Amino acid sequence: MPDHIHLLARAEKGRKLSGIMRDFKRFTSIRLNESIQQNYESRRNWMRWISQTSADQYRKNIKYKIWQEGLKAIPMERNRDIDVKLNYIHQNPVKQNFVRKAQDWMLSSAIDYCGGKGLLDIEHLSAPLVWV
User: Radius of gyration of the chain from Cα atoms?
Assistant: First the structure.
């Protein structure tokens, strides 16, 4: 989605999902801010203003803020729960009228579940997972 991300994820044994997500947010924030500043983007000034305004409202001394605080992790123990969430994720761009078919959303794993290969490498997951 253009303004948020849905993930089905799990941490390897001995690792914490919260630490993985913290590192993911840190890494992508740096890269997104670099990209906004270095590349021509018609909404560059607006995006910088939004991320700077968000950073101003945050307690830590940061210049730009991309991600919201926190992690909405929902443990899933049953394959049915995973299937429901995966379907929700795949249908989200369709419901928002960005595409007609889920597999047409460029950054979705839906194409991988239809026998194709998407832009991102995915791993077909099984329970137990956490929906983020």
Answer: 17
Task: Please check whether residue 2 lies inside any domain of the structure.
Answer: no
Q: Is residue 3 part of a domain?
A: no
What's this model's pTM, rounded to 2 decimal places? 0.71
| 1 part of a folded domain | no
- Residue 113 domain boundaries: 8-131
Coil, strand or helix at 75: strand
pLDDT along the chain (132 residues), means of 10: 78 89 87 78 74 70 72 82 90 94 92 89 67 55
The distance in angstroms from the start CA to the end CA of the chain is 14
From 128, 109, 125, 105, select the one nearest 117 (Cα to Cα).
109
Pairing relation of β-strands 74-76 and 8-9?
unpaired
